[in-house]
Amino acid sequence: EHDSALTILRLKKEAQENALLECLEPVKEAYSESYTPLQRRVLLATVIEYITR
User: Fold this and answer.
1) Helical H runs in 1-53?
2) Given CA atoms 9, 15, 17, 23 in this order, what sign does their dihedral have?
3) How far is Cα 30 from Cα 44, in angstroms, rounded to an integer?
4) How many whole angstroms separate alpha carbon 9 and alpha carbon 31?
5) pTM (2 decimals)?
6) What is d(CA 43, CA 38) in angstroms, rounded to the nearest whole number?
């Protein structure tokens, strides 16, 4: 019983981390490409908003 609760929590955490990595992917791209500082700020703000939703 206790184990399954822990497993669910772990899976949830992994899912959150995967989602986080996925939405950070475009950010990495943005910094490797020639984005303007404003575009980077907007992208970062969008990602942060998505994460904290």
Assistant:
1) 2-32, 37-51
2) negative
3) 10
4) 33
5) 0.41
6) 9
